[in-house]
Amino acid sequence: MRVPALRVINPKGGERIVEDNTEKEQIFRDAFFPPPPDTPNIPPDPQYPQSKWDFSPPTNRQIQQAIRRLKNGKATRTGTIPNDVFKAIGDLAVPYLGPIYRATFTLGVYPEDWSKTETIVLKKPGKPDYRDANAWRPITLSNGHGRLLNSIIAEEITKRAELLGLLPAMQFG
């Protein structure tokens, strides 16, 4: 399916129709991804507090739990392992995935391909006019390995932050 011609309203209120795919791409890019701030909000010489816990690479048990949490039918970036395959072979794959995932930390190597994503645009259901860029939404497809490993780390950080009281009161109920 192709994106239809998009209607663009200029600052003076005039309308123009965009049919060129390169221009449509730029319209979606501007709508979905705001520009970075003019000045970075990270101080030039940040002082971080002492760590509240010692990090350890993911265990096979954490990998298995993360595989079980994966949602069925979710797409991944073209050419990468989808959730359904991880779920189907999880018990067989974990003894092999564990050393690979732990090596990303012990060796300090994170495969560049795991960081790459593809963004596609899908129609928001029920919108009256799909010539409006706001009637579309971005969907980001990531590498299956990267997504799985990142979910394990996010789960661990969240769990530790909650247990150690590092989140503001009322933040998550």
Provide structural commentary.
This protein is an alpha+beta fold and 173 residues long. 40% of the residues lie in helices and 13% in strands. A two-stranded antiparallel ribbon has the order 1-2. It has a two-stranded antiparallel ribbon with strand order 3-4. The two termini are 42 Å apart. 12% of the residues are buried. It comes from Lentinula detonsa. This is Reverse transcriptase domain-containing protein.
Task: Give the averaged pLDDT, no decimals.
Answer: 92
Based on CA atoms alone, the radius of gyration comes out at: 21 Å
What kind of assembly state do the chains in view correspond to? single chain
Spell out the helices and strands N to C: EEHHHHEEH
How many individual β-strands? 4
Organism: Lentinula detonsa
Protein name: Reverse transcriptase domain-containing protein
Summarize the structure.
With 173 residues, this protein is an alpha+beta fold.
Structure keywords:
173 residues, alpha+beta, two-stranded antiparallel sheet, two-stranded antiparallel ribbon, 4 strands, extended, Reverse transcriptase domain-containing protein
